[in-house]
Specification:
Layout (H helix, E strand, L loop, with lengths): L8 E4 L8 E7 L2 E3 L3 H11 L3 H7 L9 E4 L7 E6 L6 H18 L4 E6 L5 H14 L17 E8 L8 H20 L7 H12 L5 E5 L1 H7 L2 H7 L7 E7 L7 E12 L8 H4 L7 H15 L5 E11 L11 E3 L5 E3 L7 H13 L5 E6 L3 H7 L4 E5 L2 H14 L3 E3 L6 H4 L7 E2 L8 H10 L8 E5 L5 E2 L10 E2 L4 H11 L1
Parallel strand pairs: 1-7, 2-5, 2-6, 6-7, 10-11, 10-14, 13-17, 14-18, 15-16
Antiparallel strand pairs: 2-3, 4-5, 8-9, 9-11, 12-13, 15-18, 19-20
Helix pairs in contact: 3-4, 4-5, 5-10, 8-11, 10-16, 11-15, 13-16
């Protein structure tokens, strides 16, 4: 099971007594969120306000910049975080995350309580609460020793909202952050510990006490039903594939959302073997499945009145004498045949099977999420996901959900000539052509062939944002990031 433990969150009107650390912001116009009592205490003890003292100690109103200030009197120490530009909810979400990462560094030896004050109002408080919780995330290393435990850590987070617009913001933020952290945990687990069968078992454990039902198809059931893509991709491994179906059907739901996730628990590239430097991080190739599983569980916990059916296609793409080959012709779920172009273009094959199956449920909207193409990273970088859709209305719906969630998403076209590039002389279509141009939109064009005409569909390519190989920033941790989870929850909210 995922091993994260996020601090408990509360939303309060004023600075609680006994708080150890207080996170505030710094813009070019001064401090954000510093309570009057703190400003007065700083003026009395240091002869300057919070912003002036922070600037004198090297703080800058630059995103990600952090400085810790001494306590004034009996008050808390301050963590001042730079906010570059207009303090939008997303910038404040980033600032809260950066502040909590700084706090976590100070809490290595003893538990510390943290308050965050970056402005008021429901939209701002919600963003700050999410950012603070996600910034506090850490993945526990796998160790045979307990000597590294110091008893430290963040002992509760209080977000200050002077206006008192609490509602259910704290519970919603906690649920959403836990869902993101669950996806992060799964992505971070080493591939010898997370493989198709064990991943399915962990999902079963996650939803056990929730109104979500689960069905797992093993290799025998997949063979009987004709899931040729999943079976081909997973056939080279002794740890055989699975298709995991989650169902959430609350009373009163008027919309049906189908989610499909790529769950390649390790991707060697198959016979089209990846170079060594490109293989190391391929434990993250199941991030799409992690996102849809975690999001579905959170949607149910929030009690959103939308029906959700989620399909995670889980396989391990390895090399052996049972590996599938370039030029193989595969019969996919539903009967369509595919000439395989490249065994390292495996994600679209498992997704095709799952999309075809999901479409049989006649959903109102189908969304697939996948770390699908390096081409999308080349086009959009490591922090922006690609969006390809069936129609403009679906594009607007996804873009609005991503904006509300604070997850960068950019629409790419599926141009008319892409389908011609998928023509095959020996099958109904080819999975990938030899030339590499337009790889992200070509993959989307392939997936579209497995969604019935007239069914609203969106494809999210999260290849860049799903895994952060560098240092943490804002509320984004190193390793798995949980990309896509918040957008899917927001999407379900809009449908509900």
């Amino acid at each position: 099971m995922p091993t994260h433990s996020l601090p408990a969150l509360s939303i309060v009107r004023s600075l609680p007594r006994g708080v150890d650390l207080l996170v505030v912001g710094l813009t070019s116009d001064g401090a954000i969120g510093a309570p009057d009592s703190i400003e007065a205490a700083y003026g009395k003890q240091f002869g300057s306000g919070v912003a002036e003292l922070a600037l004198s100690l090297g703080a800058k109103p630059k995103t990600g910049n952090r400085r810790t200030l001494p306590a004034a009197g009996s008050g808390p120490r301050l963590i001042v975080v730079g906010v570059n530009g207009e303090p939008t909810p997303d910038l404040l979400r980033q600032a809260a995350g950066a502040g909590l990462r700084q706090a976590a560094g100070l809490a290595e030896q003893a538990k510390l309580s943290v308050a965050v004050s970056l402005g008021g109002g429901p939209e701002v408080v919600r963003a700050v609460a999410e950012g603070a919780l996600l910034g506090s995330y850490s993945y526990a290393p796998i160790s045979g020793s307990s000597n590294g435990s110091t008893g430290g850590g963040i002992d509760g987070i209080a977000v200050i909202d002077p206006g008192g617009s609490r509602g259910d913001l704290a519970a919603r933020a906690q649920t959403m952050a836990n869902a993101v952290a669950t996806a992060r945990d799964w992505v971070n687990v080493p591939p010898n510990l997370l493989y198709p069968a064990s991943f399915a078992d962990q999902v079963r454990a996650l939803v056990k006490e929730s109104p979500v039902t689960i069905e797992v198809l093993d290799e025998k059931a997949l063979t009987r039903a004709g899931y040729g893509g999943i079976l081909a991709v997973g056939g080279g491994s002794s740890r055989l594939p699975r298709l995991v179906k989650l169902s959430y059907a609350p009373r009163g739901a008027k919309a049906h959302l189908a989610l499909v996730g790529k769950g390649i628990t390790f991707d060697s590239g198959g016979l089209n073997l990846k170079p060594a430097e490109g293989m190391y991080w391929m434990k993250c190739d199941m991030a799409g499945a992690a996102a849809i599983f975690a999001a579905t569980h959170a949607i149910a916990q929030l009690g959103l009145k939308v029906r959700v059916t989620a399909y995670g296609a889980l396989a391990e793409n390895l090399v052996s004498d049972t590996s599938y080959r370039p030029s193989d012709v595969l019969t996919m779920y539903g009967g369509k045949t595919v000439e395989n172009g490249n065994t390292d273009a495996e994600g679209r094959l498992v997704l095709a099977d799952a999309l075809a199956r999901a479409s049989e449920d006649h959903p109102d909207l189908v969304v697939d999420v996948a770390t699908l193409t390096g081409a999308c990273i080349i086009a959009l970088g490591n922090r922006t996901s690609g969006l390809m859709v069936s129609d403009d209305e679906t594009a607007v719906r996804l873009l609005d959900a991503a904006e509300a969630a604070g997850e960068p998403l950019w629409q790419l076209p599926i141009t008319a000539e892409q389908r011609e590039r998928l023509d095959s002389k020996v099958a109904d279509l080819r999975s990938s052509p030899r030339e590499r141009a337009g790889g992200a939109i070509l993959a989307a064009a392939f997936l579209r062939e497995f969604v019935p005409a007239g069914t609203p569909w969106a494809h999210l390519d999260i290849a860049g944002p799903a895994f952060n190989e560098g240092k943490p920033y804002g509320y984004i941790s190193s390793g798995g990031t949980g990309a896509g989870v918040r957008t899917l929850i927001e999407l379900a909210s809009s449908l509900a």
